[in-house]
Amino acid sequence: MKQLNYDVLKETGYQGFIEKDAPERIIQFGEGNFLRGFVDYFVDIMNEKSGFHSKVLVVQPIARGLRDIINTQEGLYTLYLRGFQDGQKVNQKRVISSISRCMNPYDEFDKFMESAESQDLRFVVSNTTEAGIAYDPECRFEDAPASSFPGKLTQWLYHRYETFKEGHGMIILSCELIDDNGKELEKCVLKYAEQWNLGEEFIKWIEKENIFCATLVDRIVTGYPRSEVENLNMENSYEDQLVDTAEIFGLWVIEAPQELGQEIPFEKAGLPVIITDNHKPYKQRKVRILNGAHTSFVLGAYLAGEDIVRNCMNDETIRTFMNKTVYDEIIPTLDLPEQELKDFAAAVTERFKNPYIDHKLLDISLNSTSKWKARVLPSLLEYVKRKGTLPSCITASMAFYIQFYRGIRWEEDGIMIARRESNEYPVKDDLNVLKFYMDRKDAKTEDLVHDVLSNTDFWGQDLTQVPGFENAVLQDMEVIQESGARKLMENMIR
Q1: What is the pLDDT of residue 178?
Q2: What CA–CA distance (Å, rounded) separates 261 from 265?
Q3: How many whole angstroms separate alpha carbon 126 and alpha carbon 132?
Q4: Would you call 242 exposed, middle or buried from its count of C-beta atoms within 10 A (0-12, 13-18, 19+)?
Q5: pLDDT in tens, 395-404
Q6: Which end of the chain has fewer beta carbons closer than 10 Å to its terminal beta carbon, N or C?
Q7: Across the chain, what does the average pLDDT equal?
Q8: 6-276 homologous superfamily
C-alpha cells in the first residue's frame, strides 16, 4: 500500500478540500497529536471556508521527532473527529493539508534561521513537548539550536530583527498548558535577550512589534489509533503514519487585541474561537465546570460501582448528581453570562458521553487531592460566600474523596490500596498524601474527617472553619459507610 502524499491521495479519488500550494504564514513549534488535531485543523478549515490561503511551517521541538514522516507525506494526514454532537453520534474524516513541511533545527539549524527571513510569516504557534515555557539559564546564544523552546524562539526572533530592523513582528499564540502562557513566554524571551546581550533596540522591537497572546485551548486529542490503523488504511487505500483522532468539541480562547480577528479569519470560518481582553474567566469556566465536574463526581461514581465516564452518563443517578452539582452549585459561582455557562455545561455532558473514548474513572482519580483544591474548593467557598449555605453536592464530593482515599495497605512503588464493595483498587497521589491517609487507616471517621479538613497543606486553609462543613461531611460519610455512595447521591438529588 502506497504511503499518503498528494499524488496518492489523488489516485484514491478523495473528494474533500485540499490546498496544495499556499504561502507559509505560520511557524509552529511542535508536531504532535494535539497541534495537528487542533491548530492545524483550524487552519485547514480557514483555508476552506474563508480563503485564508496559508500553510504551516512546522519546527520539530526536540532532536527526535516526526520530520521525516511529515515530509514524506508532504504534510498530509488524516484526522478523525469523533463524539456526540447535538445528541447524535458523529465520526468525521478529513484529510488535513495545512502543513507545508517540517524541519529539525538540530540538524537544519541554518534552514531554521533562514525561515526567519520570510516576509510571509506572521504567526507563531507552539505546544512544545520538551520543558515547554521555562527559562533555562544554561541556554546559550551560540548553541545551534538553543536547548529550550524560548531560547530557540529568541534566536529566531533576533535573526528576524537583524534581517528587517523594523516592523515584521509576529503574533505569538502559545498553547502550552500553563497559566498566562503567552506572558510567561515573553518573559523568557526578554530574559534571554538580556542574558545574551542582544541590545536594547532588539528588546524594544520585541515589545513594540510582537504580540505574545495568552491562550486557553480545549479539545481532547486522543491521537494515533493504534488498534484501528490497519483497518483505516485499508478503507482509505493509502498508508498514513500520522493518523490523528480527537473529540468533536473544540474551543480556543485568545487574549489579544480585537484586530487579530481581521488578520486571521476565525469568525468568518465559523470556528469556536473567542478573542478577548481577558482569557481568565474562560479558564475559570473550564476549570470549575469541566474539570470540576470530573473531580466532584468520579470518586463517588467509582465507589458506586462504575468504571468509565461514558457509562456514568447513562446512569441516571450519577448523571443527575453531576448535573445538579454543575447547574445548581458551580454555575451560580461564576460571572460569565448564565446562558453561555449553561451551553458550555451542556457541551461537557456530550463530551463525557463520547462513545469513542473509554475514559477510566481510576485514571481521572490520579492526584485527586490537588485537583479538588484547584477545581472544586473555589466553587465551595464562593457558593458559601454568595448563598450563605453549603452546596450539598460539593459537600458530598468531599465525603466521596475521603472515603475513596481510605487505604487498607501499601504496595510497592508508593501505591496505596483501598477497597470498594466489589474490589480493591490503587490510590495514586503524592507520597505525603498517601502517607497521611495510611497513618490514619484505623482512625474513627469523625477523627479522619477532622484531620483531612483541617490539613492546611492539602487545602491552603483550615476547612473546619467553613461553617457547618465538617459536620455535613461527617454525616455524608456515615451515609456512605452505612448504605453506600449511590445512596448518598440519591439523597442529594431528591
Answers
A1: 86
A2: 6
A3: 9
A4: buried
A5: 999 999 999 9
A6: C
A7: 96
A8: NAD(P)-binding Rossmann-like Domain (3.40.50.720)
Domain with CATH 3.40.50.720 in the chain: 6-276
Enter the CATH code of domain 281-493.
Answer: 1.10.1040.10
Q: Give the separation between CA 213 and CA 255, rounded to whole angstroms.
A: 6
> How is residue 239 written as a grid cell?
498508508
Cell of 472: 455535613
Residue 222 has pLDDT above 50, yes or no: yes
Closest CA to 373 of 475, 281, 455: 455
Bridge partners (DSSP) listed for residue 207: none
Higher pLDDT, residue 245 or 85 = 245
Structural contact between residues 96 and 243, judged by C-beta atoms closer than 8 angstroms: no
Dist CA 348 CA 291 (whole Å): 10
Query: In the chain, which residues fall in CATH 1.10.1040.10?
Result: 281-493
Strands (E), 219-315: 244-247, 251-255, 273-276
Residue 132 has pLDDT above 80, yes or no: no
